[in-house]
Specification:
alpha/beta, TIM Barrel, SH3 type barrels, eight-stranded mixed barrel, four-stranded antiparallel beta sheet, 12 helices, GH, Lyzozyme M1 (1,4-beta-N-acetylmuramidase), lysozyme activity, Glyco_hydro_25
């Protein structure tokens, strides 16, 4: 007969077993949320080179549809005609986008008209807006949508921009579009304060078909279904594919709420928090002498906000486009440091900020 174990040893053993089990459970859940997304589409332009028969055939097995660039301002993409020809030849559904350069409604209407004229058989049409805002931007952007809708025979009209820049548009402008296509490069599905229908989750997805790293997209939870993007008359090989194969599942959405909540735009915070008296949260002014003293780091690609009141985010023209609260993870393309000052830029999402080094840290 074994001697009786002291009561405290029994309690301690039970507690340790419980902690170990809970740790394993949480570990499995955390790992499960990090998955490689299977793109539903790529966006392609002349920068990816010439589309060949072999590339197009392979591309059809990688994605459900592609989004082709038509123009940059009024500059026609030099691979557009060949890209369209290859998509038609191999039955790959495609939408098109124009990188917008307009400064007013008249220019917006002209750009929209030209996008349609150059690709009249596209499944949908995208206004790719990434430049700075002015007093006429909202009116012009809504006018782009109205013009396109009046000439394209009822096909979807879509607005593309970075996560924070999208937030700078008025709600009435966003409502002028049938869908929103948003760029935000992160492992978890972003949760901004507006609904979006297509998520460009990376610019570094390797395509075996193209032999290059591409911008890649997935359909988020509650995004427009695959049929919205490819229509009901798509090639049977594509149209019969399940949307769930290429959409972000609810597990990732749930994990994002717990782990990456800091990436959300925090427009619901009080004005006192968003407009803290901390001088680092005012619109920064960078003088020529300051620029000379900044040095650039290419090793840091993301920063965590650690300041109590967070940091404000601005577009290139100084317009406030969002507020990142404490704990937010901000992806950055360019980082400059001068003494205790940091300037960071995210070209894709269309924001920059300037702050004290004590408000952010390397992630």
């Amino acid at each position: 007969m074994e001697p009786k174990k002291p009561l405290f040893k029994i309690i301690l053993s039970t507690l340790l077993i419980s902690i170990f089990s809970l740790t394993c459970l949480l570990g499995v859940k955390a790992n499960a949320s990090f998955k490689d997304y299977q793109p539903v589409s790529y966006d392609i332009s002349e920068w990816q080179g010439r589309m060949t028969d072999s590339k197009a055939q392979a591309l059809k097995n990688e994605v459900k549809f592609v989004i082709l660039r038509v123009q940059d301002g009024m500059y026609k993409d030099k691979q557009l005609n060949n890209n369209i020809s290859m998509m038609d030849k191999y039955g790959i559904p495609y939408g098109v986008y124009g990188f917008s350069r307009y400064a007013n409604a008249a220019q917006a209407n002209e750009e929209a008209q030209r996008v349609y004229n150059l690709a009249p058989n596209a499944r949908f049409y995208v206004n790719d807006y990434e430049i700075g805002f002015n007093s006429k931007t909202n009116q012009a952007t809504a006018s782009w949508a109205d013009t396109m809708r009046s000439i394209n025979g009822g096909k979807p009209v879509v607005l593309y921009s970075g996560m924070y820049k999208m937030n700078a548009f008025k709600q009435s402008t966003l409502n002028a579009y049938d869908a929103l296509w948003m760029a935000s490069y992160s492992k978890y599905m972003p949760q901004p304060n507006y609904n979006y229908d297509l998520w460009q989750f990376t610019s570094q997805y390797y395509s075996s078909a193209m032999g290059k790293k591409l911008d890649a997209n997935v359909i988020p939870v509650n995004g427009k279904p695959l049929s919205f993007w490819i229509g009901n008359n798509a090639d049977s090989n594509t149209n019969n594919s399940s949307q769930s194969d290429n959409s972000v599942d609810s597990n990732n959405n749930s994990s994002n709420n717990q782990t990456n909540d800091g990436q959300q735009n925090n427009t619901q915070q009080t004005d006192q928090s968003a407009n803290s008296s901390n001088s680092d949260n005012t619109t920064p002014t960078i003088t020529a002498s300051m620029k000379k003293r900044f040095y650039t780091s290419k090793k840091i690609t993301a920063l965590r906000v650690i300041g109590k009141h967070g940091v404000n985010l601005y577009s290139s023209d100084g317009t406030k486009v969002g507020h990142a609260k404490k704990g937010a993870i901000l992806d950055i393309d360019k980082l400059s440091i001068n003494g205790n000052k940091v300037r960071a830029v995210n070209d894709t999402e269309g924001y920059y900020f300037s702050a004290s080094k004590k408000l952010v840290k390397k992630y």
